[in-house]
Amino acid sequence: MKQRYYSLDVFRGGTVALMILVNNPGTWGHMFKPLTHVPWHGCSPTDLVFPFFLFAVGNAMSFVIPRLQETGAAAFWKKVIKRSVLIFAIGLFLNWWPFVTWVGNELYFKEWINSMDPTKGVRIFGVLQRIAVAYFFASILVYYFRPRMLIYISAAILLGYWAFCAFLGGADPYSLEGWFGTDIDKKILGVAHVYKGEGVPFDPEGLASTLPAIVQVVFGYLAGVYIKNQGQVNWLWTKVSTSKEPHFKLLSGLLVTGFILLISGWVWSLGFPINKKIWTSSYVLYATGLGIMTIGGMIWYIEVQGVKNKLTQFFDVFGRNPLFIFVLSGLLPRFLGLFRIADGIGANGEPNYITALTWFYRNVCAEIPGPPEIGSFVYSLCFLVLMWAICYGLDKKGIYVKV
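RE: above sequence
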């Protein structure tokens, strides 16, 4: 029996690759629709990338937690606290990086709170910070509770979050203005440290919406346990007899479970809309259902059919250094942004500047015939290949950066 499915590594690597792809377009103004987030309610393929990654974190935990349970609580707490703090700190570092910014023709230090405008400062939360917090609390749950109890706890969290949204929100509790979590973020984190990409202080990775994200990791763990046991134990309720066709049992269990969660999420969305930015409970069920079905399809394709080709190896390389390459994909463009290239004179008589990456997009990718979305997408692919080449070089040398 295999102790680990190769398809889970490919799934994780594919998720990281998609995160890099959608986060680095040639220009945010020209992107193919499936590569953009929906404005508010709804779900695009891009909106599935982050929950899929949290789901993959849970999958990996199904292999790690049993070993920690054998070594004892002290080892568990040491590892989980250390890893959570490091991931959170790296995310905060990434938000602050590169610590200086151009203002006119001078570089200024990026203050924790802007001395000229106290409503601006370094954002505290973000993607890695959410991963750290969700991983921390999910690890505690899966360490101390059995799978059946985890189902009950997850249901309670999702129902509780719905109640918070419905009864603590404004007149339109699921809107940007009425969602209850923003007031919590502003009071605890401070307005200066909350994301303002929506035009107002609102953090899509803030405190309140991290609560249902914990369940995303727990669901990934439960799916990993089921896959690990190859369908020979029904982790929901009772033991069943050993199947002569374990892959059939495994795949049918995954696809049926995924379909049920998918439909449940859609039905719940009729009253509690699917929404990534406030990470609604219906969104958790919907994304988890698609994640389970995707993994089921990959297991059938890779494990049952025995397919291992250039495409699977491409994504597997990302899966070997997921945290490192995701961080690098954020650090590199911001670092290169410090080095400016003259780009003529603006209407105000002042010189314009661009970065090396912007120059590459304008003079190479944007020159490709067709709609501007093509050039923007080609730039994303070029950046993705660059990140892959770095991962590939590390893999060849046996270098794996872990926390």
